[in-house]
Task: structure prediction
Amino acid sequence: MKARLLIFGYGFIGAAFATAARAAGYDIAATARTAEKRGELIAQGVAAIDPADRNALAQVYAEAGAVLITPAPDDGGCPAFAALTPAPAQKWIGYLSTTGVYGDRGGGWVFEDSALLPTVVEGRRRALAESQWLEIGAQVFRLPGLYGPGRNVIERLKTGAARRVHKPGHVFSRLHHDDCASALMASLNRPHPGGVYNLCDDEPAAADTVLEWAAALTGLPLPPVIAWDDPSLSSRMRRFYNDNKRVSNARAKAELGWQPRYPTYREGLTAIWNDLRHK
Result:
């Protein structure tokens, strides 16, 4: 009988991890709140569970050998933690957090043992959810900006949705979704209960630098430069530019034996562009 992986919240990263885990021999189950989404999952060969059905959820959680938790937290912490009421983990449990828990470091480096100093409510909620899962021996993965097919600056340039925002000295880290999936698989194969890992590529960079490089790669036109505090930008985007830090992935490499396939945005965007050109 195949080992089962339960993905609580089947989104961008959940789908990438499911693909990698299925290739490794796992049977996949996932939660979905709507009947339409559950139907889509079933058509993909995924056992779909309504998270509001507590009996079905408890059964599949008990049967699963590994569990990935992806939903955003609220003021009470992680909704999946409340739904599952898990005992101390006897299985691999991965919780996806964000590097937003570190807050602003003025462009300096952060590591897993750096103090958590979130500057916005979303980061404070993540820190609370992390503490819930770490208390039962789950592993926490702090993610930066994620990109991949269907979610990247090239496609935003193509549709005219890209914003060329400039803030002097601002950098952030990013990660291709396939590299996120491979890091989670590395953890699954080499678990460290209670471990915390930053998952990101090797080169933090400014958002406008990445956009300009993507335009040069593709020949697509660049939008005009916008200041980071321009009133036309959404409050969410302006909050993004309040935090400025570089994130180290050294622990994930050392403890999990992981290496990103796309060590910088250049390799990742080149692969995406090559795929788009051949469609």
Q: What stands out?
A: The mean pLDDT is 95.
